Queue: 2 jobs
Job 1
Amino acid sequence: AQRVTQPEKLLSVFKGAPVELKCNYSYSGSPELFWYVQYSRQRLQLLLRHISRESIKGFTADLNKGETSFHLKKPFAQEEDSAMYYCALSGQGNTDKLIFGTGTRLQVFP
Amino acid sequence: NAGVMQNPRHLVRRRGQEARLRCSPVKGHSHVYWYRQLPEEGLKFMVYLQKENIIDESGMPKERFSAEFPKEGPSILRIQQVVRGDSAAYFCASSSQGGRGEQFFGPGTRLTVL
């Protein structure tokens, strides 16, 4: 079964601390993995995708096929990083539908 | 570019009524997706449409739910005879291409069934 698991509902850190939001997936094949972010009162937006291998707003995520994980990391959290983060996958085929995890709320305290 | 527009933003219906949710994709986008988010859950795929065609409706409930994306005008998600369990946030996303193109999301419509 295709599934995305985000084990933490809430992650609270202080400004300047490292952040790791966990994401594990279950998919038989070669999925594409994404992180979407929703800031307060804003719409869901793409943060990064594994194929682009970019660092966006200081965040990185590496696809680990052996552990079927795609954890999101940032070495030094900022208050403006506080938001809801969703991990998602898109399977093979041409329908593009995204399978989302339940999300992790990141709170960064000053 | 106003992005994906959804209306209404909030919709209240009584049990048994019909709900119509509208989605205007990003200008030039011909691919539309509908997702539903129940409380405390992630977004769940419902249906994928291209202009005038339903491509994948594997996430749509078999009864009472339908979707369309006409040649002209917005995409419509229609829920007939709503029940309390239909209360959720419904999100629309659009993309310019198939094959894992980036999806741009609308602000969502929050449906409350009394």
Job 2
Amino acid sequence: KAGVTQTPRYLIKTRGQQVTLSCSPISGHRSVSWYQQTPGQGLQFLFEYFSETQRNKGNFPGRFSGRQFSNSRSEMNVSTLELGDSALYLCASSFESSGAPQYFGPGTRLTVL
Amino acid sequence: GQQVMQIPQYQHVQEGEDFTTYCNSSTTLSNIQWYKQRPGGHPVFLIQLVKSGEVKKQKRLTFQFGEAKKNSSLHITATQTTDVGTYFCAGIKAAGNKLTFGGGTRVLVKP
């Protein structure tokens, strides 16, 4: 099976802009979770989608949002970008839930200038 | 909220030596998972432990889940340069369904 894919792999944006990241899970996986990874804060859970519904949410401001499509592909959106949003954004898929073993994609490296 | 702590943050190991990294949770866990992230890569799932006192081995890696299901350890024997990376534990609290990751142990191997 093909692994989790994420696009784009790298992004450079300026403060105040918005960005949309895309994730395609492993075929057959219905749960997609998003994580933010920074050197200072480690891996932080953003949210999980299952069957097009947000099932779990981390402690991030409303500027961070997501959605899932009927084919399980997911997008994450960050509006009004801040310098502190610079990070590696990782998507992970699993068969059933965010509590099951996670299979991570390569990530999108976002730099906010 | 649930916290998962890992120690040490950094581990410098001489090639061929053994080392252990520890994971401690503030709450009882239903299961714990371990991941490895190579430099420049993404986390890769290694193993999941579910039962109290469970021990699992993968070649030179030994994973243990504590009796109280609040801590876990990863022991690597005869460290090799291929072991370089950051090892994360991630736990789910009892009756929960969301993974909380520890801060990771970054392992550097001296040849």
